Amino acid sequence: YGCARSHNNLGYLAQLQSDYVRAVRHYAEAETLARRVQTKYMLSSVLLNAAYAYYRLDRYAEAEETCRDALALCKEMGDQLGVAQADDTLGIIAYNRGAYDEAIGAFGDALAIYRSQASSYQEGNTLAMLALTAVAADQHLQARAFATEALAIAEHAQLPQLEVEALNALAKVELVAGRVEQDRRAFDRAFEFAARAATTAARLGSRLDEGIARRLQGEIAAARGELFAEHFEAASVIFRTTQSAFERARTEARYGEALAAC
C-alpha cells in the first residue's frame, strides 16, 4: 500500500511539472500494486490521475476508459469528490473532441458536487474549464463570468496554480470579446492576463500552462498588430518538450492564422 501511494504521489509530482510520460509510468506501477493489495480507494485515486495524464498525452480513448473505470469505483464507494473529478476529466476529453454540450454537462455535474463539498480549488478549476468551453461554444459573456469567478476564488484562497488557469481563461475570453466587439481595450486586458499567467506558470514550473499563456500572448499580439512570432515559437518548443500534441497543433494553427492575416 505504501509503495502504491508513493508511486501515485511521484506520478502527480511529474504531472505538475508537465512530464506526463513519467507520470503514466508511475501510475502504472501504482495501479499494479493497488490491485495486488485490493484497495479500492487507492486504485480509484490512481486511475483518476492516470486518466488525466493520458488526456494530456492526447490518448483520449485510454483516458476515457480509465476514467470510467475510476468513476464506477467512486460510485461504488460513495466517493462524491471522486465522482466529480471523473466528471471533470470526461468534460475536458469531450472539450478537446469538440463535443461542447457534452463537456458543459459534465462540468456542471462536477461543479454542483464541488460546491456542496466546499472544495475551492476544484470549483475554481472547473469554472476555468467551463469558461474555455463556453468561449468555444460562442458564449463569451457567460465565459467571462465563469473565468472571473475562478480568478476570485484563486486570489481569495491564494491558489497560484488555479490563478494561472483562471488568467489563461480570462485572456482567451477577452481575446474573443475584442474580436467580436471590435474593442482594443479587451485586447489590452487579454495581454495583461496572459503575461501574468506566463510569469506565474514559469515560477511554479508548470510548463504546459506557461505554453498556453505564451500562445495566447502570440494570438493577442497578432490581434493588436504587434510582433507575435517569438510567443508562438516559444509555446511550440514547450509543447514539443512536454509531448502535448494537441496543444502544439493548436499553436501551429493559430500561428498560421496570424501569419496569413498579416
Structure write-up:
There is one protein chain. It is built from 13 helices and no strands. The chain has helices spanning 2-16, 20-37, 40-56, 60-77, 80-96, 100-117, 120-136, 140-157, 160-181, 184-204, 207-223, 229-241, 245-261. By secondary structure, the chain is mainly α.
The count of β-strands is: 0
Oligomer: single chain
N-to-C SSE string, H for helix and E for strand: HHHHHHHHHHHHH
What structural class do helix, strand and pairing data support?
A: mainly alpha
Helical content (DSSP H or I, runs of 4+): over 70%
Distance between the termini: 58 Å
**Average pLDDT taken over every residue:** 95
Number of helices: 13
Which spans of ≥5 residues are poorly predicted at pLDDT below 50? none
* Beta-strand proportion: under 5%
The outline comes out as globular
Radius of gyration: 18 Å
Major sheet size, sense and barrel closure: none
